[in-house]
């Protein structure tokens, strides 16, 4: 079931300028819990809510998903801006025209209980990076997978018992960034496409999720939870948005939120801003 707002709670969509640090409120609602902003190549923001997808203008303008089941907060826009790929509650990924229309299922049946959670698309638009969730002997296992955006054979990128999430391509397509518990609590990593070489990017006391590389490669935006946090829960305090650059880690803001705040690629096309959602009560 789609998440809903708690009594007295609001969804607030912000854009932050990474140079000045200025935060600008774009849209607020006390009626719908919207999540996970994407930015299209022509500077339009997209969010999900109530199992549906919306573009943000003066309000929320629904994008028709043409027969696709209710969606969650894992969706990405193709590099050419013509298609939005969504994760649906039936466990599959779908491609939908950005202006709305019939949906096309991309993913294969991988057995009962296997779910696909979309996080990234390659710079050439030919490949989707997703998290595959499966049950092995009663244990929930998540790994990084890829699949052609036109449909085809899946490729398993990681194969281990550690919790992996947030798989997203680097601007040049050489790396897939992700968060993983392979170092204990969740930290940021990247894995080289093809060779499988893994590099750890963060190592601190906080629980770090969802690395989003800027389109120009200048920084990585991510969500940082308090020490000891399990998973990426909703509606908690001391959630921080951070930038990882060549000069180190930079704090941008602290908010009340978590799940839905910044699950998917949310940088502006020119790499000067990114969008996020907070859920104040």
Entry summary:
With 281 residues, the chain is mostly beta strands. The protein is 0% helix and 51% strand.
Please write out the topology.
Layout (H helix, E strand, L loop, with lengths): L10 E7 L5 E7 L4 E6 L5 E5 L2 E5 L3 E4 L7 E7 L5 E6 L4 E5 L6 E2 L9 E7 L5 E10 L2 E10 L6 E2 L7 E6 L5 E6 L6 E6 L5 E3 L6 E7 L6 E6 L10 E10 L2 E10 L15 E6 L3
Intertermini distance = 21 Å
Number of strands: 23
Shape category: globular
Q: What is the CA-based Rg, rounded?
A: 17 Å
Low-confidence stretches: none
CATH architecture label name: 6 Propeller
- List SSEs in N-to-C order: EEEEEEEEEEEEEEEEEEEEEEE
Q: Please identify the structural class as seen in this structure.
A: mainly beta
CATH class: Mainly Beta
Q: Strand fraction band?
A: over 45%
Per CATH, the superfamily is: TolB, C-terminal domain
Spatial ordering of strands, largest sheet: 3-4-5-6
If you consult CATH, what is the topology?
Neuraminidase
How many helical elements?
0
- Mean pLDDT figure: 97
How many structural domains?
A: 1
Protein name: Biopolymer transporter Tol
Pfam family, one: PD40
Family: Belongs to the TolB family.
């Amino acid at each position: 079931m789609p998440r809903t707002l708690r009594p007295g709670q609001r969804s607030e969509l912000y854009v932050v300028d990474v140079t000045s640090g200025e935060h600008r409120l774009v849209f607020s609602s006390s009626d719908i819990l919207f999540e996970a902003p994407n930015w299209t190549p022509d500077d339009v923001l997209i969010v999900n809510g109530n199992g549906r997808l919306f573009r943000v203008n003066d309000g929320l303008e629904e994008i028709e998903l043409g027969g696709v089941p209710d969606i969650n907060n894992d969706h990405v826009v193709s590099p050419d801006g013509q298609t939005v790929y969504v994760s649906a509650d039936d466990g599959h990924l779908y491609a939908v025209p950005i202006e709305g229309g019939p949906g096309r299922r991309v993913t294969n049946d991988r057995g009962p209980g296997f779910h696909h959670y979309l996080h990234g698309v390659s710079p050439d638009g030919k490949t989707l990076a997703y998290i595959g969730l499966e049950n092995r002997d009663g244990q929930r296992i998540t790994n990084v997978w890829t699949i052609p955006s036109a449909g085809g054979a899946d490729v398993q990128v990681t194969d281990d018992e550690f919790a992996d999430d947030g798989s997203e391509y680097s601007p040049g397509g050489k790396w897939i960034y992700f968060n993983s518990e392979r170092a204990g609590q969740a930290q940021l990593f990247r894995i080289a496409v093809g060779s499988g070489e893994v590099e750890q990017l963060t190592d601190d006391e906080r629980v770090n999720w969802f690395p989003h590389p800027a389109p120009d490669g200048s920084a990585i935006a991510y969500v940082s939870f308090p020490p000891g946090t399990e998973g990426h829960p909703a509606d908690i305090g001391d959630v921080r948005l951070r930038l990882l650059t060549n000069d180190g880690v930079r704090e941008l803001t602290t908010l009340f939120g978590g799940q839905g705040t910044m699950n998917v690629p949310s940088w502006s096309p020119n790499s000067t801003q990114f969008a996020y959602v907070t859920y104040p009560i």
